[in-house]
Design goal:
This is Zinc ribbon domain-containing protein. This protein has a three-stranded antiparallel sheet, with no helix packed on it. The protein is built from four helices and eight strands; from the N terminus they run βββααβββααββ. It is an alpha+beta fold and 194 residues long.
């Protein structure tokens, strides 16, 4: 599923529809079911990797499979990866236009699969509006500046490894408890406190 998928009706790029859990054309509305067979053909099953083997051959399984470039935001310092032909852009994390080319140290580990989104754009917008509305002391500028029309999903990479580890650790524990005591105030009345 990594990559672009053309619509069989109009040729536009299909997008993931979380509600239908399938690909859908944003222009003509054509729904293309994403079957288990197609997933298996593309190899999108999660495969457990051996950590020791991965560390012994660090260059194996590297690269995006097509030309990409890294940019770094000068505002939040986040590093993003873009298709090589993309020119005008903003930081995916903070929205700042102050991004510059970033020299990558090593090729990225090749993604094997993607976890698709479960929440639609409309549900996300509603949740953000509800959250803004619940902020009593938030300035009105925050609500007015909310760029809910420019929301877009980000795929964040994760890697899992299984490992057998022996480790020593140490911890301090603190136990807190409260007692109630009775005392007499300046007027001779019985009072309690914790």
């Amino acid at each position: 599923m990594v990559g672009k998928h053309p619509c069989p009706e109009c040729g536009a790029n299909l997008e993931w529809n979380p509600k239908a859990q399938s690909l859908q054309c944003p222009y003509c509305g054509t729904l293309v079911p994403w079957s288990e067979t197609q997933r298996a053909e593309l190899g999108n099953a999660v495969v457990e990797q051996d950590l020791a083997a991965a560390l012994q051959s660090p260059q194996a399984g590297r690269g995006w499979g097509q030309q990409r470039r890294e940019v770094q935001c000068q505002n939040c310092r986040a590093i993003s990866v873009f298709v090589d032909g993309r020119t005008a852009q903003r930081c995916d994390f903070c929205g700042s236009p102050a991004i510059v080319a970033h020299e990558e140290r090593n090729d990225a580990i090749t993604p094997q699969s993607i976890l698709p989104f479960k929440i639609s754009d409309g549900q996300i917008r509603d949740a953000i509006r509800k959250w803004y509305g619940s902020r009593w002391f938030a300035p009105n500028k925050l609500k007015n500046a909310a760029l809910t029309d420019t929301l877009k999903g980000l795929y964040l990479p994760y890697w899992t490894f299984d490992a057998h580890v022996q480790a020593a650790w140490q911890a301090d524990a603190g136990f807190y408890y409260y007692t109630t005591e009775t005392y007499r105030d300046a007027n001779g009345n019985a009072q309690t406190r914790q």
